[in-house]
Amino acid sequence: MTAVESPPAQRVRSTRRPATGGAGRARRPSVVLTAILLGLLAYFLLPLAWLVINSTKSTTGLFESFGLWFASDFHLFANVHDVLTYNDGIYVRWFLNTILYAVVGAGGAALLAALGGYGVAKFDFPGRRLLLAGVLGAVMVPVTALAIPTYLLLSSVQLVDTPFAVIIPSLASPFGLYLMWIYAAAAVPDELLEAARLDGAGELRIFWSVAMRLLAPGFVTVLLFQLVHVWNNYFLPLIVLRNPAWFPLTVGLKQWNSQAYAVGGSQAVFTLVITGSLLAIIPLVAMFLVLQRYWQSGIAMGAVKQ
Amino acid sequence: MAVASPSRRRGLTGFLFFAPFLLVFLVAIVAPLLYALGLSLFRRRLIGGTSFVGLDNYLRAAVDPQFLAGVGRVALFLIFQVPVMLLLALFVALAIDGRRVWWPKLFRLGVFVPYAVPAVVGTLMWGFLYGGQFGLTGQIADAFGVDPPDFFGTTLMLPALANIVTWQFVGYNMLILYAALRAIPQDLYDAAEVDGAGEFRKVWSVKLPALRPALLLATIFSVIGSFQLFTEPKVMQDLAPAVITTSYTPNIYAYELAFNGQLVDYSAAISVLLGLVTIVVAYVVQLTTARRERIL
Predict the structure, then answer these.
(1) Which of A60, A120, A213, A233 is the most exposed place for a label (fewest CB within 10 A)?
(2) B280 touches chain A (CB under 8 A)
């Protein structure tokens, strides 16, 4: 792995930087550069704008009106109603499944990474170096290469087609451990731990009430990016789940889409796919907007991608 | 470091903190990896049962035209897609960091938003936009009275997929590069200004060298991602079943072999081989960069 700067040091330096940023002296913004970036922004927001606009259309409106403008009738609430009630409300079930997998999987992964990273950074135990080397080597192992063997293993212990099949693989985040390790090494001073020990606090208590407070920004970053990973995952749940009642949103929406495009498929399903897609992306987009402060400082750690 | 006397107990405590992660790591990553390796050395037949075949599955994969075509396709994909994506990310990061644009915060957020969109939904949306019938492409082409480009045809499918992946990951890579730019100490800029360096000179001599490690990290992750291409083509399969074949990418091929072909052992060998190819390519990327740095 390449060296990644320790986050606290980075933050200190960036606050010391004047508002002019990397340019040194204050300069006037360039019209040309701003125009180019506006063009790029339009490209990045185009599909989302299309999705918002077309989720307000009925099936006829979808096929007959211009894609980047609203149709004469406003059908959004009817579409949302259709999405939530189609097939006995299976979409609501998919939504709840996704929340379950994301909260338990990502929350668990972040917690295990924080515990493990703290243990590796602040204690010395036999085999520590070897274990670390193994974990860091695993950062390079492509996650999808493991998906099919994971399915075979899970089916041999009868866990396929249960929530555990999605949650257990989501709990392991080698990159999360790596981040929490460098974060704990930099952000938790040994003196503080020694002082707490002299006060007679137990090790677990020290972790919860002293270390965890200092690890919070790193913890939130690992949590956020693992949340995205689990919420957006498609390959693993596609393989390990058969029963639609356990599907997450990604697998369910893809199934609706196949249904809409299939020979003899129903055109009415297109509005379900579009409105269902819009509802599915709102939680994560909203979360990133609300928690900006956390991930923008946390991504300085090198960020998580799997 | 721990004081001498309680150090052994403290060592055990450290291991206990690490143990829950280790358990999940062994169950979710090491076990499947070993299982895949083991499986790939056997062949299961309906008649005759399971027999040890050594490296037979690997030798078969090494000359399997479908597997090789898939690897070639994702290699072609990454040669074009990764540089375009990283150059765009670099451009946006430099523009925002230099404060040479109005509303830098808006751009930083707007470019990043697609990262929060699931690949399935991203592909669905672009699929609608690409569509010739009721898609935006079709409508615009109609307005100009020309034939719409066929994004679902053999030639344009790969660029169409590359566009989706680029759309999704420019913002993520931009943030990594931006974070690295923010970490450059002010002294370096001051020194450059004393030397009379202009704007471009500063980008070339201060910013780009400082971005090296972050760029390398972003490149390696992108290479890994490209070789594992699955979700985008899998969703596109509904729209272009004739073009996205069952061996379009190595991962789709492994999936089809395991679930529709019942060739689990061969599929395991393909997965392992793909992982090896990925690691070798990622390693080579690292080597070339390191060598160049040694020269400079």
Answers:
(1) A213
(2) no
